Amino acid sequence: MAEQQKHGTPLTSLIHVMKRVFKHIIPIILLLFSVPQIQAQITVSPDGPASSISEAVEQASHGDHIIVEPGTYVEHDIIIDKKLTLEGVDHPTIDGNGEGFIMIITADSVTVNGFNIINTGRSYTRDFAAIMLEKAKDFVIENNRLDNVFFGIYLAETERGIVRNNTVKAYERREAASGNGIHLWNVKSPKIIENRVEGMRDGIYLEFVDDAEITGNISNDNNRYGLHYMFSDGGRYYDNIFRRNGAGVAVMYSDNVDMMNNIFEHNWGTSAYGLLLKDINHSKIEGNRFYRNTVAIYSEGSNHVHIHRNNFELNGWAVNIKSNSMRNRFTENNFIENSFDVRTDSPRNNNEFDGNYWSHYEGYDLEGNGIGDVPYRPVSLFSMIIERQPESLILLRSMFIRLLDTAERIMPVLTPKTLYDENPKMNRIS
What we know:
Layout: H1 2-7, H2 10-34, E1 41-44, H3 53-59, E2 65-68, E3 72-74, E4 78-80, E5 85-88, E6 93-95, E7 103-105, E8 111-113, E9 116-118, E10 129-134, E11 140-142, E12 145-147, E13 151-156, E14 162-164, E15 167-169, E16 182-188, E17 191-193, E18 196-198, E19 204-210, E20 213-215, E21 218-220, E22 225-230, E23 236-238, E24 241-243, E25 247-252, E26 258-260, E27 263-265, E28 273-278, E29 281-286, E30 289-291, E31 295-300, E32 303-308, E33 311-313, E34 317-321, E35 329-331, E36 334-336, E37 340-343, E38 352-354, E39 357-358, H4 381-388, H5 399-410
Parallel strand pairs: 1-2, 2-5, 3-6, 4-7, 5-8, 6-9, 7-10, 8-11, 9-12, 10-13, 11-14, 12-15, 13-16, 14-17, 15-18, 16-19, 17-20, 18-21, 19-22, 20-23, 21-24, 22-25, 23-26, 24-27, 25-28, 26-29, 27-30, 28-31, 29-32, 30-33, 31-34, 32-35, 33-36, 34-37, 35-38, 36-39
C-alpha cells in the first residue's frame, strides 16, 4: 500500500505522462497554425493556361494574386466573391462588349489595379457599371482607365474603400442617357482621390454617404454636375477642379460639409452655378476660387455656413442668396470684377458680410488702416431690375444704369438697407 501511494495508481501515472506530452505538443500546434498561408499567383494571358479573368478568379483561393498580361479580354459579369488582388500589366483591356456589368465585387479587401475597362451595357432600368462593388469593405480601386461606360465605378453599401487615380470617360451628351462617373450610395468613410471624370451625367455622385473624403479630383465637361452631394453628412472635399460642367457642384440636404481649396471655373449656362447650396447647415466654404461662372454661389434654404477667404473673379453673379438662407457669414473674401456681386430676393438681410474686398467699392480710407470708412452695399439696383426684366441686361454697361446704381448706394430705397459690408477692405486679401 505504501508503495502504491508513493508511485500513484496506473491512471494517475497515465494522466501525468499525457500532461507532459501535451505540454510539448501544444506549442508546436500553435506554431503550425501561426504560419501564414502561402498566397498563390495566377497569371492570365491570351494564350496561357488561364485565358480569361473569370477562369482565373474561379481557380483562385482566398488571398491570391492574379496577374493579367497585356491583351484584350472580352468578358462581362466577372464575379469576385473572395479576397483577391487583380493587377494588370501595361493596362490590359477588359471589353464588356456592351453586355452589362463588367466586374462585380462582393468580397472584402479586393484590389483592382491597372486595367483598361471599356464598353459596359446601357439601360434605362439598370445601372450597368464597369466596376460594381456591393457590401464590400476595405477595397482599393486604382490606376484604371474606364472608357465608353454607362456608370463607371459604383459603390453600394460599402465601407472604408479607396478609389484612386482612375480615369472615367463617356461620350453621351444627353443627361437622361448617361450615368455617373463615380457613384456612391449608402457608403461609409470612402476616399475618392485624384481621379479624372469626363462626359458623365454627374462626375462624382454621393447619396447617403457619411464622412467622405474627396480630394485632388478633376471633374469636367459632365452633363449635369461635377460633384453632387445628396443627404451626405460630415464629409469634406478639397483641392478638386470642377470645370465646364452643366453646373460645378451641388450640395443638397446635408450638414457639416467642408468645401476647401477647390477651383470652380467656366460653368456657364442659363441655370449653371459654380456651387449650388440647398438646405445645408453648419458647413464651411474656404479658400476656393470661383472663376467665370454664371453664378458662383447660389444658396437656398442654407444656414450657418461660413464663406471665408474665397476668390470670386469675373463671374456673372458672385453670390445669389435667397431670403430663406439665414445666419451665413461672408468674411475676408475677394470680389473681383464680377458683373454683380450679390443678388437677393428680399428687402431684408439675414446674413453677415464683413471685411471683404470689393473691386467695385469706390469709398475712401482717411484713417489709413486698410478699411473703407464708408460701408459697401453689394446689391445693385440694376441686379434687381434684371431679376424682374431679364431682357434689360442689354443695358448693363450704359451710363444711365451706372447713375442709377450710384444714387441707390448713396440713398438706398429699393435695395436691402441692412445688407452691407461695414468694414470693406481697400486692398485685395492675399
